[in-house]
């Protein structure tokens, strides 16, 4: 069983393993980044670092929707970024040993696999794939 942050993107439920999350912050001051477009919402100052704020729903192909006032600070190896999500639900224990493969229609998405929590399907995100999708978007 692994602690997992559960949040909504549109009508779907997603999860991120707590190990990849440094902190969840509320209402940070979002600074405009000139010429930023696409999934880059701006930047915040976080413990002396300037971090990019990424619109996770937009990165994953969701249409515009209301975002939560909470942001997820993601740290993977030497890379840090902030993800805006559309609704943080809670932190829950997920049994990742029984993770099912991502649906075929997910294609080359950032979904690592599917788990179930109280009869709800949770799409577990692979943080490496999220970062790779972001890097690919801006290096093309």
3D structure, described in words:
This protein is mainly beta and 140 residues long. It has a single domain (2-139), classed as OB fold (Dihydrolipoamide Acetyltransferase, E2P). It contains 2 helices and 10 strands, in the order E-E-E-E-E-H-E-E-E-E-E-H. The strands form 2 sheets. Strands 8-1-2-10-9 form a 5-stranded mixed β-sheet. It has a 5-stranded mixed β-sheet with strand order 3-6-7-5-4. The radius of gyration is 15 Å and the shape is globular. It starts with a strand and ends with a helix. The mean pLDDT is 84.
Which CATH architecture is right? Beta Barrel
Radius of gyration, whole Å: 15 Å
**Fourth-tier CATH superfamily name:** CheA-289, Domain 4
Q: How does the major sheet shape up?
A: 5 strands, mixed
Shape: globular
Main sheet: which strands, in order across?
8-1-2-10-9
Task: Tell me roughly what share of residues is in helical segments.
Answer: 10-25%
Which helices and strands, and how do they pair?
Layout: E1 2-9, E2 12-17, E3 21-26, E4 40-46, E5 49-55, H1 56-59, E6 70-76, E7 79-84, E8 87-94, E9 111-117, E10 120-125, H2 127-139
Annotation keywords:
140 residues, mainly beta, OB fold (Dihydrolipoamide Acetyltransferase, E2P), 5-stranded mixed β-sheet, 2 helices, globular
């Amino acid at each position: 069983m692994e602690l997992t942050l559960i949040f909504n993107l549109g009508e779907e439920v997603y999860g991120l393993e707590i190990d990849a999350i440094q902190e969840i912050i509320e209402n940070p001051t979002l600074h405009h980044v000139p010429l930023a477009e696409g999934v880059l919402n701006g930047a915040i100052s976080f413990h002396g670092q300037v971090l990019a704020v990424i619109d996770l729903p937009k990165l994953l192909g969701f249409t515009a929707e209301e975002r939560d006032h909470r942001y997820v600070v993601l740290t993977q190896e030497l890379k840090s970024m902030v993800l805006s999500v559309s609704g943080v639900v809670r932190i829950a224990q997920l049994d990742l040993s029984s993770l099912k493969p991502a649906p075929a229609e997910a294609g080359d998405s950032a979904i690592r696999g599917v788990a179930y929590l109280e009869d709800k399907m949770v799409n577990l995100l692979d943080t490496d794939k999220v970062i790779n999708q972001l890097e690919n978007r801006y290096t093309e």
